[in-house]
Amino acid sequence: MSEVRTDTRRPLSRDAILNAALTLADEQGLEALSMRRLAAQLGVEAMSLYNHIPSKAALLAGLLARTLMGIGTAHGEGRDWSDELRTIALATRAVAQRHPCFVQLLTSQQLHTDEMLLPVEATLRSLHAAGLDLEQTAQAYQTIVGYVVGFLLQERSGVIGISCCGGAGDPPDPTLPTPNSVPLIRRVQEDGTAGDRSFEFGLDLLIAGLSTRLPGARPRAVG
User: Fold this and answer.
1) Cα separations (Å) of 127 from 69, 75, 83, 220?
2) 14-54 and 75-211, same CATH topology
3) Per-residue pLDDT averaged across 2-14, rounded?
4) What percentage of the chain's residues is helix, strand, coil (to nearest 5)?
5) Right CATH number for 75-211 from 1.10.10.10, 3.90.780.10, 1.10.357.10, 2.40.240.10?
6) What band does 8 get if pLDDT is binned at 50, 70 and 90?
7) Mind listing the pLDDT tens digit for each residue in 144-182?
8) N or C: which end of the chain has fewer CB within 10 A?
């Protein structure tokens, strides 16, 4: 496990603190992140951090804002709404793959600043511009967030019901089901249950379903 190091001859800055904190949280988890441990990694006294970041809560908020910057939010005039949704969803997953702490940050911190809320605004704007009314826009947004966050959680912890049976080549475990008792689970598990194709498959289903709610729209083909 690598250690975060900063040249202590340089003045400490907010950016340097956030960069070091993000690396520490990615490598050891948010539970391991404390102002004291972060200061030790940076080679400074803990009180020095408070000159730039006032509290642990502010540190976590800064980390979430920093990771959310990796999600594109530009609205292209004339761009298809489904392309915008796809871009935002894929960018969100890419951030989660780069930063293992991202999902935990996203599900434990409040989005309360302009920079944090930009991806939310971009998603709502795409849905509303597609022709959904405000109620449908809110419902579609909740559905999309539920899918993306749920997929990311399962990708990190294992697919519910499918990742319970051990991997191929693992030694026999008498507490787990036998291959003959759950043959489809075994086959699906061996074929692969996560990854880009699985994420995009679900995303296609959502977009196809949403397209049926647009005024005068025809259902989109999936795949």
Assistant:
1) 21, 12, 11, 16
2) no
3) 61
4) 60, 0, 40
5) 1.10.357.10
6) very low
7) 999 999 999 988 877 666 666 555 555 555 666 666 777
8) N
